[in-house]
Design goal:
about 25% strand; 5-stranded antiparallel β-sheet; Chorismate synthase, AroC fold; 8 helices; alpha+beta
Length: about 375
């Protein structure tokens, strides 16, 4: 329950932070798709820990292996299983947390719901679970690229109160040019300094990721409950540490009048488009062919290397000093995860659209 995502392109992830490893099973991938483990590894390397001095020092190679579903470099159309072993495990760092709940973590809710939990690194609630999502997202990205050169790009626009200025669709090289993954180099340097400052204080900060998708066809999204933005919201808010989602004008749109907010339709080289795109590329829950634009807000990392008031399993008031290895800001490593979840939603809706609207011509033309 709750570990499977998607309709036609379905993934199921498994594994805990300090267990034997993390894995994912992908069902619904088309057959005869050229696929190598190197393509999956490229995306996993973007999210792995220990990348720089502003991320967790946990050292993991996150080396993937394809266990099933691929033969002689081609997908078989059968379930694809991918496995990534855990290497740098230090469960002893969490011994005190067996009986004490970490503030703003899933410790209390997991314990209360299930009556049992893996306290080592948060177990299943750890962001290490997202390895499976990124591995599956690498396959989804490839399908979308072959389907219509659909390109997904996520990047940081804010860390704490430091905002970036980004107008053009950035290249992957621009995003990856600094450890913050912000294509505004001036803002990126300030963001990195802020993250280092709070790390030295044993504190943390959050931030904002923007994601843009171009070359998306018209028609992705299913009324009424499976609207494209609704499925994107579910995908993004299923990620650890997320607290808000907005598409297009988002919350700022609530401050406008209708005459200010409505998109103006224009004709671009024989194709209908909009001049303002405040809809963010989605109208009526269906993609309109414009650039898809959405943003995801991440809270500050809950684990702090300083004493905090909490309670134990018996409800007694106590104190807890955070231990273990944690990102002082989760946002830089979340960039490829946001891209992966976007790819999983889009490839699923692309397949559903093909199945419903293009596989059978009801007009007979």
């Amino acid at each position: 329950m709750g570990n499977t995502f998607g309709t036609l392109f379905r993934i199921s992830t498994w594994g805990e932070s300090h267990g034997g490893g993390i894995g994912v099973v992908i069902d619904g991938c088309p057959p005869r798709l050229p696929l190598s483990v190197e393509e999956i590894q490229f995306e996993l390397d973007r999210r792995r820990p220990g990348q720089s001095d502003i991320t967790t020092p946990r050292k993991e190679s996150d080396t993937a292996s394809i266990v099933s579903g691929v033969y002689e470099g081609l997908t078989l159309g059968t379930p694809i299983a991918i496995y990534v072993p855990n290497g740098d495990q230090r469960p002893s760092a969490y011994s005190e947390m067996k009986d004490k709940f970490r503030p703003s973590h899933a410790d209390f809710t997991y314990q209360t719901k299930f009556g049992i939990r893996n306290h080592e690194g948060g177990g299943r609630s750890s962001a290490r679970e997202t390895i499976g999502r990124v591995a599956a997202g690498a396959i989804a990205k490839k399908i979308l690229k072959l389907a219509g050169d659909i390109e997904i790009r996520a990047y940081i626009t804010r860390v704490h109160d430091i905002e970036a200025t980004i107008t053009d669709f950035p290249t992957l090289e621009q995003v990856e040019a600094n450890p913050v993954r912000c294509p505004d180099p001036v803002a990126a340097e300030k963001m990195a300094d802020r993250i280092r400052e709070v790390r030295a204080e044993g504190d943390s900060v959050g931030g904002l990721i923007e994601c843009r998708v171009r070359n998306l066809p018209v028609g992705l999204g299913v009324p009424v409950f499976d609207r494209l933005e609704a499925d994107l919201a579910k995908a993004m808010l299923s990620l650890p540490a997320t607290k808000a989602f907005e598409v297009g004008s988002g919350f700022d749109g609530s401050l406008m009048k209708g005459s200010e907010h409505n998109d103006i339709f224009v004709n671009k080289d024989g194709k209908v488009g909009t001049a303002t795109n405040r809809s963010g590329g989605v109208q009526g829950g269906i993609s309109n062919g414009e650039e898809l634009v959405f943003r995801v807000a991440f809270k500050p990392t809950a684990t702090l290397i300083q004493k905090q008031a909490t309670v134990d399993k018996d409800g007694n008031e106590t104190e807890l000093m955070g231990r273990g290895r944690h990102d002082p800001c989760v946002v830089p490593r979340a960039v490829p995860i946001v891209e992966s979840m976007a790819a999983l939603v889009l490839v699923d809706h692309w397949m559903r659209h093909k199945a419903q609207c293009e596989a059978f011509d009801v007009q007979g033309s």
